[in-house]
Specification:
Blueprint (H helix, E strand, L loop, with lengths): L5 H31 L3 H5 L7 E4 L2 E4 L1 H9 L1 H8 L18
Antiparallel strand pairs: 1-2
Length: 98
């Protein structure tokens, strides 16, 4: 018995969506270890060059701002005082071209 022609296309779309979701989870999971270890470059690479990190009330625009935050006195003091990120499973929806 042969599957309908649309079946492989549906499977490919579902697989692409699952791969996108996994990529997002990897980024979220990588943030805590990167920022907690003071790895400014690793942290910055989690964003696009023009990416925005809105940490209300502070908004960081671009990788250079992220590097500055990680290397900054305030963040370094947090690291040395034992503060750390707590990661959990996130809920997100990936949308894009069909």
């Amino acid at each position: 018995m042969h599957a309908p022609a649309a079946r492989p296309e549906q499977t490919e779309r579902r697989l692409a969506a699952a791969e996108d979701q996994l990529a997002l989870w990897r980024i979220v999971a990588g943030y805590g270890p990167a920022v907690d270890s003071g790895s400014a470059e690793v942290t910055a690479q989690l964003w696009t060059e023009e990416g925005v990190y809105d940490t209300y009330p502070v908004v960081l625009n671009g990788r250079d701002a992220l590097r500055g935050m990680v290397n900054g006195e305030r963040h370094q003091a947090l690291i040395h005082s034992g503060a750390a990120q707590w990661a959990c499973r996130t809920s997100s929806t990936a949308t894009g071209p069909s």
